[in-house]
Design goal:
The chain has eleven helices and eight strands. By secondary structure, the chain is an alpha/beta fold. It has a single domain, classed as TIM Barrel, CATH 3.20.20.150. Strands 1-2-3-4-5-6-7-8 form an eight-stranded parallel barrel. β7, α10 and β8 form a beta-alpha-beta unit. α7 packs parallel to α9.
């Protein structure tokens, strides 16, 4: 399957943000409403949905089913809402850097299966969140991940997939890790909210690895509050979009925004918020 590759600076939303929260979790695969989300996304103006592959009943995730993949393809075509990326929260529960070899191998098998599925759905980006229990702040964990990802480059190339890393490391540490992962098939997910939450300087971040950013999550945070409505936190969106203009960023934006009682209403508001910055700085 192929989707629209010529469009630039498309705006999408993280799967689940257009459905009621499940068990109070901000982000979880919406097993009962994932089909309806394509229609709602179109109504809100979005061009994209970033798929969520998490550990909750992961064997039943539709991307693992050939019949349900056909449904995903059909919904993309009907709604003109594409799935460019899959966010693999699964690996926060089953880390690829586990010190236990057997656990690593099981997770690696799942990752390889996902990569092989991507071309059928038009997915180009497989995002790996190295956060929480999956963070790789220790040298041994980074060494494991460098070896594992280096071994995946050929499979990524065969399937025209880019692997995006979402990291909790200091900017200099991110730069050092990327030097060890020289393949352009390995890129970064840049999360505006995480940067503010951890107190990082976007100017330093972009100077070190702006050219390796594969997609962007739009979120707002403070050092105290991890998820706030856009414009109510400490993210300097003017600065971020100015820096994006300097590097001629032409890729996607995915809203991974705060939840509320009216998710569709919030989504429309946040879509307009993000689109206004794109129009001001990037068009």
């Amino acid at each position: 399957m192929s989707n629209i590759k010529t469009a630039v600076n498309r705006v999408g939303i993280m799967q689940g943000r257009l459905s009621p929260m499940i068990d109070g979790r901000i982000q979880v695969f919406p097993a009962k409403t994932w089909r309806e989300e394509f229609i709602l996304a179109k109504e809100c103006g979005f061009e994209l949905i970033e798929w969520v592959f998490d550990a909750v009943q992961w064997q039943d995730n539709p991307i693992l089913s050939s019949s349900q993949r056909r449904q995903i393809i059909q919904l993309q075509k009907e709604c003109k809402v594409w799935v460019p990326a899959v966010c693999c929260d699964y690996f926060m529960e089953y880390p690829l850097s586990s010190p236990v070899l057997e656990e690593r191998e099981k997770s690696l098998t799942v990752l390889k299966d996902i990569i092989r599925i991507c071309p059928e759905l038009g997915i180009q980006y497989v995002e790996l969140p190295f956060l929480g229990k999956a963070e790789i702040k220790e040298e041994y964990a980074q060494t494991i991940i460098v070896e594992l990802l280096s071994g995946l480059v050929s499979l990524a190339e065969e399937n025209n997939v880019y692997i995006l890393l979402e990291l909790s490391l200091l900017p200099r540490q991110v730069y050092g890790l990327l030097k060890r992962l020289s393949s352009r098939r390995i890129q970064l997910n840049y999360d505006t909210g995480n940067s503010a939450y951890w107190g990082y300087d976007p100017k330093e971040e972009f100077s070190l690895y702006g050219g390796r950013i594969g997609n962007i999550h739009i979120k707002d945070c403070t050092k105290k509050d991890y998820s706030l409505p856009l414009g109510e936190g400490e993210v300097d969106f003017d600065l971020v979009f100015y820096l994006l203009k300097k590097i001629n960023y032409r890729k996607d934006f995915i809203l991974q925004t705060a939840r509320g009682d009216d998710d569709s209403g919030l989504a429309k508001r946040f879509y307009e918020f993000t689109s206004s910055y794109i129009k001001e700085y990037l068009i």
